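Archive record
______________

***
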Amino acid sequence: MHNHIPIIMDSKSLSRKSFLKISGLGLSTSLLTPNILGSKLKNLMEHKALNSHKTKQPLKFALCGLGNYAHNWIAPAIVQSEYAELTAIITGSPNKVSHWQNKYSIKDSNIYDYQSLDRIKDNPDIDCVYIATPTGNHAELTIRSFEAGKHVICEKPMAPTVADCDRMINAAKKANKTLQIGYRLYWDPFNMDLMQAMRELKYGSLKGMESGFSYDQGSLTWPGDWRLTQAMNVAGALYDIGVYVVQSAFYSAQRHPLSVTASHSTDRADIFKEIPEHWDWQFEWPNGLSSRHSSSYGRSENYVKLKTEAGSLALEPAFSYKNIAGHTPTGTMNYPEVFQQKLQIDGQSLAILGQSPSSTPGEMGRRDIQALTAIMEAADTGASVKFNHFDY
């Protein structure tokens, strides 16, 4: 969902074994901290989300990485938000500058490349940097943005390793700035409904869970596709879209898993040379529940299916930008279409302004990288990986 940029990360030359060694694994079985408020869902449904917290001065955003996701989703979201404005761009593609500058009236002095990014420190036209580049670059660009004294919203998944996540979180603390992850589904009414229902045990306890998110990237790939490289996309579909599946497991179970078993496979080795094509894994939970999950660049799936005491609770599609659908034990979910990314920018801007809690802090992103790393280790070793501790 982001454009390729040629910055070499510390983890690029790591072997899978050393990668897993420094990443660090750990989870606990405690319940998750609640992240959504009943009023948040109510306001969203009334199309009044966050309007009670109007601010006179919107946050000034620099968008870092001008790929498809930035172009079609994040930039329009910033422009439509009453709490944000797009004032600067940071890009490794000089050919894109004139289009962006003309479309968004960006001043010459607010245009940066990856070499000059550090100069944003002296620019009062930038309050926050939105990182929309491939995963392999997230840590480096995030840390440099914090060193420049700016807030950061970093796209998912947070970073290649848990060690990278720690560096990002520490840099935010040192700069006394906020770090948030671009988890848009925390502003999607269907996923919010599911989260709240499970947190409140609206339909009783969880009795079964499975989820998957896959599409055929293999038929869409092009020469130089960053998604097929370990340096930029770590584990392929598992990181790129599997992070949504891991997230759904956490907010469906509302607790931490005890262990994971996993496998990976590849059908088209001529295309998937550095990363596996398919990933499958199973979480074991404290209440004796086993859940099944998958993510692939060669299948077609997009769902969360939960079995509760009262019956089926499911989303299908579950993770899309729009057209999500779902049902509960009491009937079909009926919510209006929303611009998820616009509501995300609203909420994250207000968190930066200190007017609302952060729904998607860096610690959440770190937790998910812990889980993804464990899945990789379990698949590579063929053994169950136990979780010992989660900080979030």
Summary: The longest strand covers residues 206-214.
